Amino acid sequence: MSDVVQVTAEVIATRRAGAYHHLTFVAPGVAERARPGQFVALSVGGSSSAHLLRRCFSIHRVSPSGTYGGTVDLVISSVGPGSDWLSTLRAHDTTSMVGPLGRPFPLPKEAVATVLVGGGYGSAPLCWLAETLRERGCRVDVVLGAATESRLFGVGQARRAADSVTVTTDDGSAGHKGWVSDVLPALVAAHGAAVVYACGPMGMLRAVTDVAGATGAVAQVAVEESMACGVGVCMTCVMPVTGNDGVTRMVRSCVEGPVFRGDRVRWDAFDGGGCRVPEDALGASAMRAH
User: Fold this and answer.
1) What's the CA gap between 68 and 12, in Å, rounded?
2) Which of 153, 177, 206, 265 has its CA 20 to 30 A from that of 120?
3) In the chain, which residues have pLDDT < 70?
4) Based on C-alpha coordinates, what's the Rg of the chain?
């Protein structure tokens, strides 16, 4: 947490991006420290707000320097009072920002083929990641999926940043009709991808992990667990992850994540919605006793 800062972030630009809101904040200190896959926590509601908890969002991209100083771009989906309030911000409005938070996507030490998979606005951090990987000499193929065309994000940016872009929609309104997991196996196999990066809904991340495992690639997934504080205090985002020692522990996705190796996540704990504590998890018996 030593590299985390809290700043008063000022909005300098807002725009609609399909079903989402794209906001640019001046946030010096955050922009210079951030890496792809990390996130920020924003206060919501203003000085008289009853919303005590912050809202967490993946960082879309940063500009460490510029006319206004370091800037941070976020993509917001209005799904509740907090995100609704953020979507109403206009130029020169301010809010408190804490970041960068969480563990970023690990980058390969050598130039290898990679595939990046985004679901809905979960694709927000992937263009920045694609640019970073290309700078390291990696091949980058991108798959972007959503329920319908308006729920896609970043297709144009991805086409500028990646070697190829494949689009899928559940209803066939854009690209291939179906899921990202339908087109992913062939794409991974075509170039012998060593790493598959993904960000999006938990069901999608599980499917991506299965595809990566079947092809011998490593899945690195950024989970979308609900985070109330973003700094590991409230324990609302705990999830079961197996460590190097083979022991499953309930870890905080905001601190130990949000990026995990896909084959370490206990996806079975998410069956039926929510997240349960596996019976073999460390301390599970004590948790049940309470």
Assistant:
1) 9
2) 265
3) 1-2, 47-52, 66, 225, 228, 273, 284-290
4) 19
- Do residues 14 and 7 touch, judged by C-beta distance below 8 A? no
DSSP-based three-state secondary structure for 138: coil
**Amino acid occupying residue 79:** V
Question: Is it true that domain 113-209 has CATH number 3.10.290.10?
Answer: no
Cis omega (within 30 of 0) for bond into 104: no
pLDDT for residue 52: 65
Q: Does domain 5-101 have CATH number 2.10.109.10?
A: no
- Strand 176-177 relative to strand 164-169, pairing: parallel
Which among 3, 18, 100, 91 has a CA at the least distance from the CA of 60? 100
Residue identified by tokens 């985002």 is: 237
Q: What is the pTM of this model?
A: 0.92
